């Protein structure tokens, strides 16, 4: 299976970068073809400009400035997001990716006023996230990243697709042991993706 890995950890020596490397390694060892989309390393511009918004609904003109990212999304059969959670949301670069790439005509179309997914070729979805907050604080805040992955994104791909959601909570008080255990979990789960 061709798997697109969206990575938005800005520091190459970080724990998040180690999770990214482990995700890639496990997916490859399971026989997947991996398209590693490291948004920071690729210099992705997350800003939806005024002109981008003006032509937002004008497919295919709306894809011109992000054409290579659209093509990568259209070729993938699996999607894995590897990112930190900042202020109970995705980093701006990842949010900007969804705003600029998951466009009308690319991720959905309107048919008789109803939204129809155009990403049903994506059969599996995964997320490897790190949170500064503990699970209770994330729950109280509504855990938007979890809902985006397990509800919003899942609804935009093939219906009833399996979702692998892995989160290391409470990074502010993590230890070598908790980080090691989570890295092992990522290794196992991504090898079964």
Automatic annotation (TrEMBL):
Which ranges carry the Flavodoxin-like fold domain? 1-136
The protein's superkingdom reads: Bacteria
Please give the InterPro entries that the UniProt record associates with this protein: Flavodoxin_fold, Flavoprotein-like_sf, NAD(P)H_dehydrogenase_qn
The answer, when asked if Oxidoreductase is one of the entry's keywords, is yes
Q: Which GO terms describe its cellular component?
A: cytosol
SUPFAM superfamilies named in the record: Flavoproteins
Named from the GO MF annotations, one term is:
NAD(P)H dehydrogenase (quinone) activity
**Which UniProt keyword terms apply here?**
Oxidoreductase
The UniProt entry's sequence similarity note says: Belongs to the NAD(P)H dehydrogenase (quinone) family.
Q: Please give the name of this protein.
A: NAD(P)H-dependent oxidoreductase
Q: What is the lineage of its organism?
A: Bacteria, Pseudomonadati, Pseudomonadota, Alphaproteobacteria, Hyphomicrobiales
């Amino acid at each position: 299976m061709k798997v697109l890995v969206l990575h938005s950890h800005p520091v190459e020596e970080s724990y998040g970068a180690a999770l990214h490397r482990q995700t890639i390694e496990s997916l490859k060892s399971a026989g997947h073809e991996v398209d590693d989309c490291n948004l920071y390393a690729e210099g992705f511009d997350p800003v939806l400009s005024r002109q981008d918004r003006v032509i937002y609904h004008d497919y295919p003109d709306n894809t011109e400035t992000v054409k290579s990212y659209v093509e990568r999304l259209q070729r993938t059969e699996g999607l894995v997001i590897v990112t930190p959670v900042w202020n109970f949301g995705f980093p701006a670069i990842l949010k900007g990716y969804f705003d600029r790439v998951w466009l009308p005509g690319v991720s959905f179309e309107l048919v008789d006023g109803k939204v129809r997914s155009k990403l049903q070729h994506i059969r599996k979805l995964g997320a490897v996230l790190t949170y500064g907050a503990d699970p209770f604080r994330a729950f109280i805040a509504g855990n938007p990243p979890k809902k985006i992955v397990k509800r919003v994104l899942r609804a935009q791909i093939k219906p009833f697709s399996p979702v692998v959601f892995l989160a290391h909570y409470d990074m502010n008080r993590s230890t070598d042991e908790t980080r090691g255990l989570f890295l092992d979990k990522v290794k196992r789960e991504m090898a079964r993706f």
